[in-house]
Amino acid sequence: MRVLVVAEHDSHALRAASLSCFTFAQAVAEATGGSVTWLALGNKIDPVVAEAAHFAPVIAVDSPLLSQPLADSFALVIASIAREHQFELVSGAASTFSKDLLPRAAALLGGAMASDVVRHELIDKALQFDCPQYAGAVTATLRLIGSPQVVTVRGSAYPPAKADESTNHAVERVEIEAAKLASRCEYIGLKSKKSARPDVTEARIVVSGGRALKNSEDFERLVGKLADTLGGAVGSSRALVDAGIAPNELQVGQTGKIVAPELYIAIGISGAVQHLAGMKNSRTIVAINSDPDAPIFDVADFGLVGDAYQIVPQLIEKLQKHAAHVAG
Ligand SMILES: Cc1cc2nc3c(=O)[nH]c(=O)nc-3n(C[C@H](O)[C@H](O)[C@H](O)COP(=O)(O)OP(=O)(O)OC[C@H]3O[C@@H](n4cnc5c(N)ncnc54)[C@H](O)[C@@H]3O)c2cc1C
């Protein structure tokens, strides 16, 4: 099978979720005797193209016309490249970025699509995909009919691929014409908070806060500070996002981000099924909650029963002392 991986990046480097998607694509290509190619889209993306070429051949569309990721333009480019190069499987990370692009590309290609793939299997020369549904309550096993097939792949389900920096695969540069990118969207601007912290979907450690945190100051003083002490990312339950205490992009769960870090610390989060859907595959889960019967303890490896306002400052102090001891 000829597999295309749509690269997700920040113009400088590939995102970890894309590297996990590449692992999936490589496994499919190996099982079917096929090949993997990256598709890198954007403007001034030379570092990304160079990095991707350490893994596999790259098709690069580097144009000022793609300086903003407008989904309808990007989808047109993906569909036209998939069609012209006769890719049989088009894949991307199951992220906000790909979820915006790939269903549009699938519709343009007339191809069947599976979202949130967590496992695949080749049976009788046909691929089957496992896709969790209803916040992970059930898993659907799908076989896609026709070609091309289009899938998004959960980053937490496949390990990120490692680059072979001694290899540089071929790069094919493709020009695009403005007339072919007829977009119904006009980019006006972007409002985004710059954060020095790692992205919640890519961090090895995630510290998340829930309704126990009464306001933004407490959230930052407890959850933010513990995350910074551990060099981790900050996450949140939807309760805090709905209350305006935490920004939307921090939400973990069914309608937020799916994470699977090495360590997930849930502070004052009850463990509703919609929150668990976003973090239950974390390697080690630590829960801090004043209610010993909170459902979060059912999935936690370590539990601390008590008041987060007392426990978290003590934890931060002990970790800081330990770090100073190690450094000194
Ligand atoms: C369609 C749909 C989609 C949803 N998607 C998401 C999603 O993506 N992500 C998500 O998180 N939720 C989602 N929800 C909401 C979800 O059902 C819960 O309402 C939400 O997760 C609850 O957030 P919480 O655990 O912070 O709050 P609560 O359920 O109110 O829990 C607060 C917890 O804090 C503990 N606590 C209180 N004070 C303290 C203290 N001082 N110290 C320690 N512990 C304390 C309490 O014992 C309690 O367990 C969704 C709901 C729906 C219907």
Q: How would the global form be characterised?
A: globular
User: Helix content range of the residues, please?
Assistant: 25-40%
Proportion of strand residues:
15-25%
Strand order of the largest sheet: 5-9-4-1-2-3-10
Instruction: Supply the number of helical segments.
Output: 9
| Biggest pleated sheet | 7 strands, parallel
Bound molecules: flavin-adenine dinucleotide
Mean pLDDT: 95
Walk me through this protein's architecture.
There is one protein chain. This protein is an alpha/beta fold and 328 residues long. It has 9 helices and 15 strands. The strands form 3 sheets. It has a 7-stranded parallel beta sheet, sandwiched between helices. Strands 12-11-13-14-15 form a 5-stranded parallel beta sheet. Strands 6-7-8 form a 3-stranded antiparallel beta sheet, covered by helices on one side. The longest helix has 20 residues, at 308-327. The relative contact order is 0.11. The mean pLDDT is 95. It binds flavin-adenine dinucleotide. Flavin-adenine dinucleotide is lined by residues 210-212, 237-239, 251-256, 268-270, 272, 274-275, 278, 288-291, 294, 307-309.
Question: Topology, pairings included?
Answer:
Blueprint: E1 2-6, H1 16-32, E2 35-42, H2 46-52, E3 58-62, H3 71-84, E4 89-93, H4 96-109, E5 112-117, E6 119-123, E7 126-133, E8 138-142, E9 149-153, E10 171-173, E11 205-209, H5 216-230, E12 233-236, H6 238-242, E13 263-267, H7 273-279, E14 284-289, H8 296-299, E15 302-305, H9 308-327
Helix pairs in contact: 3-4, 5-9
Bound molecules: flavin-adenine dinucleotide.
